[in-house]
Amino acid sequence: MAKKITIVGAGLAGSLLSVYLAQKGFAVDIYERRGDMRKYDIGGGRSINLALSTRGIYALKEVGLYDEIKKIAIPMYGRMIHSLDGKTQLQPYGKDMSEYINSVSRAELNKKLMDLAEQYPSVKFYFNMRCLGMDFDRGEIYFHNEETLQNTAIRSEIMIATDGATSPVRMEMLKLPRFNFSQVYENYGYKELAIPPDTGGKHKMEINALHIWPRGSYMLIALPNMDGSYTCTLFLAYDKSLGQENSFERLISEDTVKNFFNKNFPDAAALMPGLPKDFFQNPTGSLITIKCYPWCIGGKAALLGDSCHAIVPFFGQGMNAAFEDCTYLNECIDKHNDDWEKIFSEYQQLRKANTDAIADLAQENFIEMRDLVADERFQLKKKIESELFKRFPDRFIPKYSMVTFHRFHYKVALERGHIQEKILNGLSDGISRIDEVNWDKGEKLVEANLEPLDIVQDLTGF
Ligand SMILES: Cc1cc2nc3c(=O)[nH]c(=O)nc-3n(C[C@H](O)[C@H](O)[C@H](O)COP(=O)(O)OP(=O)(O)OC[C@H]3O[C@@H](n4cnc5c(N)ncnc54)[C@H](O)[C@@H]3O)c2cc1C
Ligand 1 within 6 A of 289 CB? Predict the structure, then answer.
């Protein structure tokens, strides 16, 4: 009989992981707190659409699902910056049109992953089963059935928790000696709003872009949906404790909301008939970074995805990183066959430093998105970066590209990103135009500080 693995949480990572494991010949039982989202609209208040990029695509290709997902993905070739005066400017993400990120519906992606998983008779989903905790010594996991209100204990030799940022399994690990854990909330929240399609069902703005209204300490973004609408997300401070003039705390009446949008995002506000009602109807989400270690208890249990490395969403990498966890765990299974202690141990060694790095990269990118993209010096640095990339395609790869269009370790992207930033600062200092750049100095700095990287073209292409 096939060895059984229990997964807790049938979100994005858990559903994908079940496919990987089924393809390896394991029997997989996957327990999910919510009802089956393919039958009921379970809402949930999490982001409606997500940016899918190379790491996530790689994993989807590995399990053979990418062609299906591609049908529901909208390419976004760059950031469309919306200035206060209504002017727009497209800043491409990649070196050319072959490099783009994809707007995908979270729910559709999750449903398709579940459908694919269920094509394997060895995968069984159990819905409305809320995990309460686990006894690692006994190998028992405890669930509460939200429909029958009964509690059950399930025995499992091997368990993987993909139960998200509030992971009850991780909470159980917290009780063990020498378990490190940190959670940091931003003083920023997010609110989802919508730009509906026009009367003909078409998109009201450029479809193939991620729209940003950067306003210094806060920002609005919009990602396109297949039905002609956009999901907008306002990122704003909760209160003025960090000195921000604008905050959720101040937006307490329909008038304050209307005024805030008309003043700061007039072109977007004109396309949002649901304002200000949606603002008060939709929840304000919080933003958290979670780091912990270890991620596993011997060969018995392991954490994967947001349960061990929830990050802020500003690099669009949380799901991509969780999918990449699956890729690496899969490699470790291949390597260590049935030795789960070695499998989990190597998986966490490979991933921990890298997920810490993407947590830091995501924090850095918030400042870039909400503030710097509209800045002239930033734009000059982007031009210099692009020229250095042309001259040194395997040495000076923009940080955004290393994270989004390649599968270099996140740690490498973080470290090289900092070196590159120093070079760009040095070259842009005291000048205002690209033709003033001292390219000799630039070339020497690149050659002295950045070793060539091995550019792999495997399953990463779009
Ligand atoms: C506003 C926002 C925007 C984002 N944008 C992007 C983006 O553009 N690109 C990107 O890559 N990432 C993005 N992310 C991050 C992404 O959403 C997460 O990294 C991703 O969902 C992690 O997947 P997961 O499966 O680990 O966790 P989740 O998707 O949270 O899934 C966890 C699952 O476990 C279930 N569960 C929870 N508790 C229990 C329990 N007690 N018992 C049983 N089941 C349980 C949940 O119901 C859920 O189904 C964004 C996040 C936010 C908040």
Answer: no
Q: In whole angstroms, what is the distance from residue 21 CA to residue 329 CA?
A: 10
Rounded CA separation 116/286 (Å): 31
Distance CA 272, CA 232 (A): 10
Supply the residue whose CA is at minimum distance from atom 50 of ligand 1: 313
Q: How far is the CA of 260 from the centre of ligand 1 (A)?
A: 30
Which of 347, 365, 383 is the endpoint of a domain? 365
Q: Is 185 helix (H, G, I), strand (E, B) or coil?
A: strand
Select from 151, 146, 140 the least CA-distant residue to 128.
146
Domains identified in the chain, total number: 3
Indicate whether residue 51 lines ligand 1 (CB < 6 A). Answer: yes
pLDDT attached to residue 201: 96
Distance CA 10, CA 32 (A): 5
- Determine the structural domain holding residue 351 and report its residue range: 4-71+106-182+289-365
pLDDT at 371: 76
- What's the 11 CA to ligand 1 centre distance in angstroms? 6
Q: 299 and 155, same structural domain?
A: yes
C-alpha angle 41-42-45 in degrees, rounded to nearest 5 = 120
**pLDDT on residue 424:** 97
Pair 31, 111 in one domain: yes
Residues 47 and 190 in one domain: no
Residue 359 Cβ contacting ligand 1 at under 6 Å: no
Tell me which residues of the chain have a pLDDT lower than 70.
1, 42-47, 457-462
User: Starting at the edge strand that comes first in sequence, how are the strands of the sheet with 151-155 ordered?
Assistant: 129-135, 140-145, 151-155
Q: What is d(CA 207, CA 211) in angstroms, rounded to the nearest whole number?
A: 9
- The rounded Å distance from CA 353 to ligand 1 centre is 21
Q: Are residues 148 and 268 in the same domain?
A: no
pLDDT at position 447: 97
Mutate to test the pocket of ligand 1, among 6, 12, 290, 400 (most ligand atoms within 8 A of CB): 12
Please enumerate in sequence order all residues whose Cβ is within 8 A of that of 418, keeping only pairs 6 or more positions apart, or say none. Answer: none
